[in-house]
Amino acid sequence: MISLDCLTKYYGNFQALKKITLNISKGEFLGFLGPNGAGKTTTIKILTGLAKPSDGRVTIGGFDVVREPLKTKSIVGYIPDNPYLYEKLTGREMLRLVGVIYKMNNVNIEKKSEGFFEMFGLSQYGNELIESYSHGMKQKLAISMALIHEPRVLVVDEPMVGLDPQGAKIVRELFRGLSRNGTTIFMSTHIMEEAEKLCDRIGIIAKGELVAGGTIKELWEKSNQKDGRLEEIFLELTDTVTS
Amino acid sequence: MTRLNLIPLLYIKILSIKNNLKTLSKEGVFKFSFLLIVAFLFLVLDYFFFYRVIKYIFSLEDTIGSILILQLLRVIFITFLSMLFFSNIIASLSTLYISSDLELLMNLPVPSYSAFIFKFIQTLFNSSWMIAMFGFPIFLALGRIYGMELKFYFILLFLFIPFAMLSANAGILITMFLVRLFPVRKTYQIMTFLGGIFAIGLIFLIRFSEPEKLLGRKVTDDMIVSFLKSLEVPDYWFLPSTWATEAIRYSLDGRYIGTYKMLWLFYATSIITFAVVVFIASKIYFHGVIRSRESNSFRLLPDGLKQNGIKEKVLRKNNSIRGNFLEKDIKLFLRDPTKWSQIFMLLGLVVIYFFNIYNLPLDTFFLKNLVSFMNLGLAGFVLSALAVRFVYPAISLEGQSMWILISGPVDYKSYIWGKFFIFFVPLLLISESLIVISNLILEVDSYMMLLSVVTMFFITLAIVGLGVGFSAIYPKFRFEDPAQVSASTGGILFMIISLVYVGLTIVLEAGPVYSYFNYKVFYRNVGGMWVYFSYLGIVILSIITAYFPLRAGMKRLEKIEI
User: Fold this and answer.
1) Do A84 and B401 touch (CB under 8 A)?
2) Mind listing the pLDDT tens digit for each residue in B521-553?
3) What range(s) does the ABC transporter domain occupy (chain A) (predicted)?
4) In whole angstroms, what is the distance from residue A67 CA to residue B95 CA?
5) Domain contains A70
6) Which residues of B touch A52 (CB under 8 A)?
7) What's the mean pLDDT in A224-239?
8) Which of A100, A108, A127 to mutate to test binding with chain B, by most B CBs within 10 Å of its CB?
């Protein structure tokens, strides 16, 4: 469903991504891990059209992200780590705007919006301006925005930031359900436990290179931590590259 | 203790300015130099205008002259005082309560009054540097005409510091109390709005007093006296503007003892009031900052803006992306008074525009129609100024929310054209109103009326196209104030190109208008096919000016990275 083929990205002379190759199948839940500045956000930005690759090819659902951006974007949902929203719109208006962008009909937008508001306990705040929302509420709204059009691929950057324990639990269950129902999820996170619990496969990136990829079991085998936690595996694999 | 903690805080500010200057890009150097030249030209004009006015007053009889100088000084100081007062309230709301460095500042191990004094100095500087800059040429002109020695200018400097400080004391004190009563952002929006009304009131006051009468050759003493009398301003003994006027008067009369007494009064009052403000701040400022950070109270929208509003129903019938973007832009505009309050300023300037046209002493067919033709250039200039403020920031104003559009399946062609029509329709209404009403006042004939209306249509089309195109070519999504977007390099470049375009249009149209005047005034036929080529030239020039930037803007958005 998602295919990265020799993906390379330069910012001036700095090479942020070095020939990354990765394939993610339909319904697979991939955790994308890496230290700060490793290239996680750059990869996510390329997947969502917020940045362009310098070299290599990325396809989502068979569509090339550079050549067929509209087709790609119409099947992708994106949840950023810091959701900047239109502060002077209400939550309902924001969801409606996004629904229209994804060419949904009014009835469907209303139905879906109410469903998300209810799920996240935001119903009573739907007609409030977003400027009065807390960070967690904005994050919940951003998750609703990403899912309102039922995307085939979900790209997520640090989804649990700012969420309360109840909110985080809802989101975890939501993601698991989506993955079970065939949605492909590409999630960047710093929380190892989160990745361990949720993801089918892990990709570890350091200094722009994909240093390891596979199931937790496969990562154990690659590392010296035969029965260690993901955190130890991560530290060992990224240390080799960064040192 | 305070001093020890204040120096590192000020040092941070100086370091950031130094680093900003060090890392200035080519674009930054261009912008900086351009602004420097504009500011210099403005100061030169400011100096010569006041030099002429003061010199005239100086040449009058002794008694009348000194009365009038006193009156002029009163007007200047009361204007400065009120401007400083207002700008201190607005600036302090931003620096003391909204500024992004507050959280860091609050966590530093410095006494609360150090942080407050640091912010006080920032506010004082932000709100008074422009007035100091504008005032300097006025007093330089005054000093030169009265043959004042260097001491006079030092006195001015020492006078301005407590003068500005007193306004800051009053403004900041009011801000602290306002924030105790109302939410910070709401207060900021209301005060910015009132500031706008105040500014337009000031412009009205100056314009309707018809100062141009004083610049004619046949100006009688009576006319000057009645002009300055019409500028009657309060001169209560307790106003700092009265003290400043007195201090300058003593200096001009050579009675410096009087000036020093006034300076002593200024410093004593400003230091005592400053101490009072710091004391009050130590009691309420920090509480206010914390409150402003917690003011996440939920607000229901006014009925008109709720889901069932009539406007919503009309727009909702159209489920198109373009219609919904239009709806979004209208809502973002209407719900932010700092944006729409500028409309009042615009209306005020339009009234002055018509007043200027109405006051022109024109009595012949030739003059009236010639002015109507030149008016196209003036209206084009007004339109460019409006466009740089409203159209050019159009895409940048999506701000950091731009990710929503870029990561969504948005067709940039449709998006850009949507932006174009959002601005084209209202700006066409404004520009055509300017032209039609001016032409009606000038009583021009039907040919000039038709020519102006059609030309204005193309000028609006070109400038809006250019503005939206440049908006996409030079987007600036990270800003604290939308005015920063207009003042960016792209904004300056847009302004230059749009003025060149207006100039070229006028040049192209000068031929046909010349031929028409020849025919009407001298019954000579100097026209030919070239007249039609000139018209065609304007149409082609306008379409090129709109189309190519729009296309380049679309291409830029396709490649944009955020």
Assistant:
1) yes
2) 788 877 788 889 999 999 999 999 999 999 999
3) 2-232
4) 46
5) yes
6) 559, 561
7) 71
8) A100
Range of the domain at A103: 25-240
Domain contains A16: no
In contact, B170 and B84? CB cutoff 8 Å: no
Q: Which residues pair with B249 in a beta bridge?
A: none
As a whole number of angstroms, the distance between CA B436 and CA B448 comes to: 10
Has residue A5 been placed in a domain?
A: no
CATH number for A219: 3.40.50.300
Residue B322's identity, in one-letter code, is R
Query: To which H or E segment does residue A131 belong?
Result: none
Amino acid (1-letter code) at residue B192: T
Q: What is the largest CA-CA distance in chain B?
A: 86
HSE-up of residue B486 (Cα within 13 Å, Cβ side): 11
Following CA atoms A118, A119, A125, A130 in sequence, which dihedral angle do they give, to the nearest 10 degrees?
Answer: -140
Decide if A43 contacts A17 (C-beta within 8 A): yes
pLDDT at B436 over 70: yes
Both tokens of B543, joined, read 């379409």
Of B321, B411, B562, the CB nearest to A50: B562
For B491, other C-beta atoms within 10 Å of its C-beta total 25
Contacts of residues B513-518 at CB distance under 8 Å and 24 or more positions apart, as own/partner, are B513/B369, B513/B373, B513/B451, B516/B447, B516/B448, B517/B366, B517/B369, B517/B370
- Please give the full DSSP string across B341-398, using - where no structure is assigned: HHHHHHHHHHHHHHHHHHTS---SHHHHHHHHHHHHHHHHHHHHHHHHHHTTTTTGGG
d(C-alpha A208, C-alpha A210), whole Å: 7
Three-state SS annotation for B224-289: HHHHHHHCCCCCCCCCHHHHHHHHHHHHHCCCHHHHHHHHHHHHHHHHHHHHHHHHHHHHHHHHHH
A113 closest CA partner among B363, A54, A102: A102
Q: How far is A10 from chain B (nearest CA, A)?
A: 12
Residue numbers in A near B331 (CB within 8 A): 88-89, 93
| Helix (H/G/I), strand (E/B), else coil: B31 | helix
Residue B555: C-alpha distances to residues B190, B514, B548, B560 (Å): 40, 41, 11, 9
Pick from A52, A74, A89: which is nearest to B409 by CB? Answer: A74
Q: What is the pLDDT of residue B266?
A: 94
The string of pLDDT tens digits covering residues B466-497 is 999 999 999 988 776 666 787 778 888 899 99
**Rg from Cα positions in chain B:** 27
Is residue A6 in some structural domain? no
Task: Output DSSP code: residue B182.
Answer: S
* A97/B180 Cα distance (integer angstroms): 36
Full 3-state SS string of B92-108: HHHHHHHCCCHHHHHHC
Residue type for position B434: L
Check: CB of residue B123 under 8 Å from CB of residue B92. Answer: yes
Residue B417 CB-density burial (10 A; 0-12 exposed, 13-18 middle, 19+ buried) = middle
Please give the ipTM for the structure prediction.
Answer: 0.88
| Count, residues in chain A | 243
A contacts of B300 (beta carbons < 8 Å): 127-128
Token digits for A196? 């361990």
The span from the CA of B289 to the CA of B4, in Å, is: 23
Give, for B12, the enclosing helix (H) or strand (E).
helix B2-22
Q: What total number of domains does chain A contain?
A: 1
Distance from CA of B346 to the nearest CA of A (A): 23
Do B153 and B135 touch, CB atoms closer than 8 A? Answer: no
* Non-local CB neighbours of A19 within 8 Å, separated by 6+ positions: A6, A7, A8, A55, A56, A209
